[in-house]
């Protein structure tokens, strides 16, 4: 096992909380609620799988004036704050779900994903699966992050988008595990379909 991050400094944690508290709706400018804890057997809105059990980045989306409905997900109802949907994968869950919600007129008040710049993570050479942390402080505003795509590392369901708040961390990751970086605005249905293939 190779440990890529030895510790999380207090300054980084304070910075993350600042970013999370100021997360904005996609261009509208309203303050978003803070990310929530996704532990406790919460299940994915898109696929019904338990959050944190499968590896790779997790995500959560707060919608304005729209209550998302789970397609699958025993244990979701009654445990979710109003207007919040959560996911155990970005490629197979969060982004496809969000594209559909947006097409139906829903607006995001805040989108949060795992930030691997602030997570203590390891990659095993035999599985190459990134961890799937669930605590609120491991999430950051998805619209502000850099994403590594086409790397050798994987999420719980295969190829993954891996978010970083620090561009140097993303560059170091690519130097060791290959891939390229993209911004949030470059993530669309075509990109997601290509990753899933």
Automatic annotation (TrEMBL):
SUPFAM superfamilies: NosL/MerB-like. This is NosL family protein. It comes from Halonotius pteroides. The lineage of its organism: Archaea, Methanobacteriati, Methanobacteriota, Stenosarchaea group, Halobacteria.
């Amino acid at each position: 096992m190779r440990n890529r991050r030895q510790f999380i400094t207090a300054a980084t944690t304070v910075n993350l909380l600042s970013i999370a508290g100021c997360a904005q709706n996609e261009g509208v400018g309203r303050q978003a609620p803070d990310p929530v804890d996704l532990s406790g057997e919460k299940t994915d809105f898109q696929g019904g799988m338990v959050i944190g059990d499968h590896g790779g980045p997790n995500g959560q989306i707060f919608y304005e004036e729209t209550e998302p409905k789970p397609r699958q997900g025993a244990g979701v109802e009654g445990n979710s704050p109003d207007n919040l949907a959560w996911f155990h994968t970005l490629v197979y869950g969060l982004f496809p779900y969000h594209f559909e919600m947006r097409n139906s007129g829903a607006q995001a008040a805040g989108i949060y994903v795992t930030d691997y710049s602030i997570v203590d993570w390891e990659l095993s050479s035999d599985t190459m699966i990134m961890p799937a942390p669930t605590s609120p402080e491991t999430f950051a505003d998805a619209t502000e992050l850099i994403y590594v795509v086409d790397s050798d590392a994987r999420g719980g369901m295969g190829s993954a988008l891996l978010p970083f708040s620090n561009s140097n961390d993303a560059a170091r990751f690519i130097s060791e595990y290959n891939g390229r970086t993209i911004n949030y605005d470059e993530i669309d249905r075509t990109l997601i379909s290509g990753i899933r293939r």
